[in-house]
Structure formats: structure tokens, C-alpha cells
Amino acid sequence: KLINSNMKILSWNIKRPKMKEMRIQEITEIISDFSADLIFLTETNTCIEFPEYHKISTNELPSHYNGIEFHLGENKASFYSKTQLSKSIETYDGLSSVCVETESDMGKLLLYGSVIGRWKK
Q1: Does the CA dihedral 1-29-112-76 come out positive or negative?
Q2: C-alpha 62: how far from its chain's center?
């Protein structure tokens, strides 16, 4: 199945949820209700799952990165797609950006997502 030209795309910065946090269920329910073809989440966590979607994410963040403390499972960006993701494309920084190719009825679609971090001085 290809993504069609009337695709629904949802993008949301979910502000660093922690594993087993109560709002994870609320976040996943809200997103699921939209039934989007593509979902792009930023400041997310590996525990956010949508079983009916294919997923690609930035790498899980270490507990200390660029002067910031991160919790178990945190990652900066994730794509979820109702269609199979054809090919993962390497980016400059796998901790802050992700790129993937998928098929649509308009041809190949390249999805690129990133979070520009902040650095403490």
C-alpha cells in the first residue's frame, strides 16, 4: 500500500515524557485518534509505540549529553508510517536527526526530521 496524495501528517513535540509516566497513555490515545498516515514526534521516548505503524527514530540519548541530563529511553525524533519505510538514510548526527525513504502515489518521499538542541556553557 502506498501513501496517497491526500495523506494526513501529524507533528508534535511531546516534551520529553519519561517511561511509565501517566501522560504517555494520553499522548498515544490522542495521536491514535487522528489516524494519520505519517506521525513525526520530537522530544520523545522509545516507549511511545503505535503497533500498526512502522517506526524509525534517532538513537536513544545517553544519560548525559551536551550538558543535559536525559532519562531512560529518551530520543529526539521519531517517524511512524502506515506504510513500509523503504530505506533509512544516514544523517550527520544520529542522536538529533533521522531520515527515511518511503513510497507514495507521487513517487519516493524522503522524510527528514531533526531537533536543534541547546548547549549549556
Answers
A1: negative
A2: 17
Which tens digit of pLDDT belongs to each residue from 56-114? 999 999 999 888 899 999 999 999 999 889 889 999 899 999 999 988 777 888 999 99
Q: Are 94 and 59 in contact (CB under 8 A)?
A: yes
The CA distance from 37 to 51, in Å, is 13
Is the CB of residue 41 less than 8 Å from the CB of residue 48? yes
Instruction: State how far the Cα of 120 lies from the Cα of 98, in Å rounded to an integer.
Output: 23
DSSP 21-79: -THHHHHHHHHHHHT-SEEEEEEEETT---TTSEEEEPPPPPSEETTEE--TTEEEEEE
Q: Quickly tell me which residue has 541530563 as its cell.
A: 69
Cell numbers at residue 26, please? 494520553
